[in-house]
Design brief:
It is built from 14 helices and 30 strands. It has about 725 residues and is an alpha/beta fold. The strands form eight sheets. An eight-stranded parallel barrel has the order 12-13-16-17-20-21-22-23. Strands 4-3-7-11-10 form a five-stranded antiparallel β-sheet, with no helix packed on it. The longest helix has 20 residues.
Length: about 725
């Protein structure tokens, strides 16, 4: 049978209940669809463009809540949708309406462009208790069968870089914003998969020295109706509809490549450059919203199974909303868990990605009584031969009860550490203000947040250290605005975080005052250096190394325009050099390593770590909590590594301070007060240095190791 309906349409045979979705085996297409409450599922066939419905074929077999059938002679290119029959009982969570064409949750490629219309809603929008009679097939997204057999795409010699965590530096980017304004790329490739794969993009990543790109969502998503009415879009993409399909809005179509193959070309090019590909994924909710939302796929197939509904039988109409987006996927349901696991394996096996960052990750571990680190999802991942070998990163909070779980995920999982973010922002940007982070807070976050991870036998590298991410101010805006400027989002500046720990350096927004600009530059470099040199796994937000600003908008999720697009023409080349220098030093020296510190001396008599006051004496007792001083030294012995000790000096005060050095000689490797990080002050042989205000210095001992350390030793651990 051909996809255009030119041949007679055969009847469906029973086929198999696995795998879920529509799959070609070389002779025909097997279709399997989960629904525990439907009374029947119809397979609807369309022409190649998805414009004309050619046939409706009831799936003939039903096995353990899976409806299935096989279409002999069908193959890649077949365009189809689904219709579900069942009870119309919204009060019990059932929204079955056979007038609605539904997207296969396992669709590999989507056909059509979504446009909002009342016909997409299962209920009449004016009379929600009544079923809507309109047929939405002409407007609905359809699925296309693809060739997934081994060899269908030529991966050549592609292999995962498998970068060890100790060497990993994440670079978070939005595909559109990253290259939309890059003049080094052909216009047709800007903002696309092919644009990230372009040699100019890869050259920048290699210049920086990052090891992994972490892509904001690329799964096929839908722009919320509210945004569309305001002329905006969901630029970040956290509104997934197709968990197996690369979003075509990021595809250039160059060379006639499908979005699927253009994505693979991108992965292959990045791998060839030694760069891993991490996907930011959204398995906590879908684009269908709450009970007032459309029936595009999951809701129409089995709302009561796919989503968490209130337990009270009288309130099954309403969704539990642990995501703030209207609905919450119910991972307790085995078939929903299977959908997530199948999707993750697809992206690793078929698309060769190297890991995932999970948006609102506690949802995946929510059982009947809140978050559980032993939940079925985590167990399934841990034993999976494919997923257990890739990087798994949690955004460790959602908006439900008990949803803040920093430090609470299983061993082996990385977590975004907002304790690090807030402590470092507060330490550098609120100098001398009482009640802010102390030297003890700074030291604890610098050394892997042992209070969160060591007591659970977790590695310091499981803390993902960042001071800026896509969510919030850019780094330049963090030191340029005291208040958010989100008016362009259409919510009267009410959206986004109000507590940013930002500092405008004396002028709100853009300034041409040399003193203001100099201070902003120093603070940006100090924050970057802190995140990149700290113990843990650093994350850099794309554009921060170029001085990218977003006009003070700290929630630009809906701004697909120059507010978020990186302005490459205005890039701060010196800041790029500084960032690259800090990353190179991290990767070469691994200053703080990936082990917890004891403070005890090694066989050379050198403590693995010691903390110093500006007078060179041990930092002890109440001095850790002294709000009046933000000056300290961190002496890193690096026992067992046969390498010279390192010294990290920090002055977050507003004035320069004298600092007595441990016995030297010392060489200054990184100076955050200079535009490119290179040392302008010789320290070799100096017993005392003048440590500038707002400064972070990294020094290495340039002489032979001495048999005993010649300064007082603080044998305490880094837990203040």
């Amino acid at each position: 049978m051909s996809a255009d309906g030119g041949a007679a349409i055969p009847r469906l045979s029973p086929g198999r209940p696995w795998p879920l979705g529509a799959h070609w085996d070389g002779r025909g297409v097997n279709v399997a669809v989960f629904s525990a409450h439907a009374t029947g599922i119809e397979l609807c066939l369309f022409d190649a463009q998805g414009e004309h419905e050619l046939a409706r074929l009831p799936l003939p077999a039903h096995t353990q809540d899976v409806w299935h059938g096989r279409l002999e002679g069908a193959g890649p290119g077949l365009v189809y949708g689904l219709r579900a029959r069942g009870p119309w009982r919204p009060d019990r969570g059932h929204w079955f309406n056979p007038n609605k064409l539904l997207l296969d949750p396992c669709a590999r490629e989507l056909v059509g462009r979504f446009a909002w219309d009342d016909a997409h809603f299962a209920a009449d929008r004016r009379h929600p208790q009544h079923m809507d009679p309109q047929d939405n097939a002409a407007l609905a997204l359809k699925a296309r069968v693809v060739d997934e057999r081994p060899g269908a795409y030529d991966w050549g010699e592609d292999a995962p870089p498998a970068t060890p965590l100790a060497q990993t530096v994440f670079y978070e980017l939005n595909l559109k914003a990253f290259s939309a304004l890059n003049p080094a790329l052909p216009p047709a490739l800007r903002g696309t998969y092919a644009g990230l794969a372009h040699p100019a993009s890869i050259a920048h990543l290699r210049r920086l020295g990052v090891t992994a790109v972490e892509l904001l969502p690329v799964h096929h998503h839908v722009d919320e109706e509210r945004l569309v009415k305001m002329g905006l879009v969901n630029h970040w993409g956290y509104n997934t509809l197709g968990f197996f399909a690369p979003d075509p809005r990021f595809a250039s179509g160059a060379g006639g490549r499908s979005p699927r193959d253009e994505f693979r070309d991108m992965v292959r090019a990045l791998h060839a450059a030694g760069l891993e590909v991490i996907l930011d994924v959204v398995y906590n909710h879908t684009a269908e919203g709450d009970e007032r939302g459309p029936a595009l796929s999951f809701r129409g197939l089995d709302n009561a199974s796919y989503y968490r509904l209130y337990h009270d039988a009288e309130h099954r109409l309403h969704h539990e909303n642990h995501t703030g987006c209207g609905n919450t996927l119910d991972i307790r349901q085995p078939r929903v868990l299977q959908l997530v696991m199948d999707s993750l394996r697809f992206w690793v096996e078929q698309m060769h990605v190297d890991g995932f960052r999970f948006d609102l990750a506690p949802v995946l571990g929510r059982g009947d009584h809140g978050f559980d680190r032993h939940a079925a999802f985590f167990t399934a991942v841990a034993q999976d031969p494919v997923l257990s070998r890739v990087k798994m990163i949690a955004e460790p909070w959602d908006v439900g009860p008990g949803g803040y779980q920093v430090g609470g995920f299983p061993r082996g999982w990385l977590e975004w550490n907002d304790h690090f973010r807030d402590a470092m922002r507060g330490y550098w940007l609120h100098m001398g203000h009482g009640g802010g982070p102390t030297r003890g807070d700074f030291a604890q976050r610098l050394c892997g947040s042992s209070d969160l991870y060591e007591r659970r036998a977790r590695s310091p590298s499981e803390s993902v250290n960042y001071v800026v991410s896509h969510d919030g101010f850019s780094l330049r805006d963090l030191v340029s605005y005291a208040e958010r400027r989100n008016h362009a989002n259409g919510e009267n500046n009410r959206d986004g975080h109000g507590h940013n720990l930002s500092f405008n350096c004396g002028a709100e927004g853009p300034s041409d005052d040399p003193a203001v600009l100099a201070l902003r530059g120093r603070l940006q470099r100090a924050l970057l250096a802190t995140a990149l040199l700290a113990q843990g796994t650093p994350l850099l937000a794309a554009g921060d190394e170029l001085g990218h600003g977003q006009q003070g908008n700290n929630n630009p999720y809906c701004q697909d325009n120059p507010i978020t697009w990186i302005d490459w023409a205005a890039a701060d080349s010196a800041l790029i050099d500084f960032t690259a220098r800090a990353i190179a030093l991290r990767r070469r020296l691994l200053p703080l390593g990936d082990r917890w510190y004891s403070g005890l001396p090694d066989r050379r008599g050198l403590p693995d770590i010691a903390w110093l006051r500006s007078d060179g004496q041990s930092l002890e007792g109440e001095a850790w909590r002294d709000p009046a001083s933000h000056v300290l030294g961190c002496l890193i012995g690096r026992p067992g590594r046969c390498e010279s000790p390192l010294l990290l000096l920090v002055n977050a005060d507003t004035a320069a301070r004298r600092f007595r050095l441990p016995a030297g000689p010392w060489t200054l490797l990184l100076d955050s007060t200079t535009p490119d990080g290179r040392a302008h002050e010789p320290v070799d042989g100096a017993a005392e240095v003048m440590l500038p205000a707002h400064a972070l210095w990294l020094l290495a001992r340039s002489g032979p190791a001495r048999p005993r350390w010649e300064q007082p030793q603080d044998t305490r651990r880094c837990r203040r």
